[in-house]
Design goal:
alpha+beta; Alpha-Beta Plaits; 2 domains; 4 strands
């Protein structure tokens, strides 16, 4: 832990005379209130180890790695996993985990996730749908439009997000994809097909009149999250966000989705 972070943690511990049990309880309370989906499955021994190492001003990375493993095994997404660990640091007055700790968390999560069979319709890194799922949804949309003698482009457009940059490590890629996936989910929520097309490339199926306002909002939210998590260099600055009209037929739409993910 670097000197600045160590001083912040030391001052917090001294000010509140905080114990491992008390800090663990405050972490859980904050996470369950703001982040965690299922309170009963929050605690693991890795949570306690992370708190112990933080209070002792030791490197939290080994505990973070174990925590990432545990979360992946329990079926917790990478976004929720990162947000949960961030809650611990905010409790002690630090805005976000140090990068080595965040990297260890993502490495542990990725290693465990690699051994888990993930459904073909989901993307493990972002928590979104896969590119193949989006292609299947488009096939359904074009089929319905043909039956009604309509054009698919009249009912849907693709809102495309490109945050890709070169030379990103695997753990950095996971963290970036998770962060953008969280932003997209927060803004569009249920009822939209949201997919990761490729590394740093995403798309959302939107109605013609709902995507315009989302473009500027998405850019702003992605920039804010990248600054909050100290990820500016991991994302294209500024992000590219635009509305892509659907082509005339499904074959062209499929080729478009494939090309947008490259």
């Amino acid at each position: 832990m670097n000197g600045t972070l160590s001083c912040v943690v030391r001052d917090t511990v001294q000010q509140y005379a905080i114990s491992v049990e008390a800090l663990l309880a405050r972490w859980r309370e904050t996470s369950v209130r703001d982040i965690w989906l299922r309170p009963d499955d929050w605690f693991t021994s890795a949570n306690e180890a992370a708190v112990e190492r933080l209070i002792d001003r030791q490197d939290v990375s080994p505990a973070a790695y174990r925590l990432g493993e545990n979360r992946a095994t329990a079926g917790v997404g990478i976004g929720e996993t990162i947000d949960d660990l961030t809650a611990l640091y905010r409790v002690v007055g630090i805005e976000a985990p140090p990068m080595p700790v965040l990297r260890a968390l993502c490495d542990g999560w990725a290693e465990a996730m690699a051994a888990i069979q993930v459904g073909a319709g989901s993307d493990a890194e972002s928590g979104l749908s896969s590119r193949d799922y989006l292609v299947r949804r488009l096939k359904e949309i074009y089929g319905r439009a043909a039956r009604l003698n309509e054009r698919a482009s009249d009912c849907c457009r693709l809102l495309v997000v490109d945050v890709a940059v070169d030379a990103v490590d695997p753990w950095q890629r996971i963290a970036r994809n998770a962060a953008v996936g969280d932003v997209l989910t927060d803004i569009f929520g249920e009822g939209h097909s949201i997919a990761r097309l490729g590394d740093g490339h995403f798309a959302v199926l939107v109605e013609p009149d709902e995507g315009v306002d989302a473009v500027s909002r998405l850019k702003s939210e992605i920039i804010s999250v990248s600054q909050l998590l100290d990820m500016e260099r991991l994302l294209r600055q500024p992000p590219r966000v635009w509305l892509e009209p659907l082509p005339r037929d499904f074959d062209c739409a499929r080729e478009l989705v494939l090309s947008l993910g490259r």
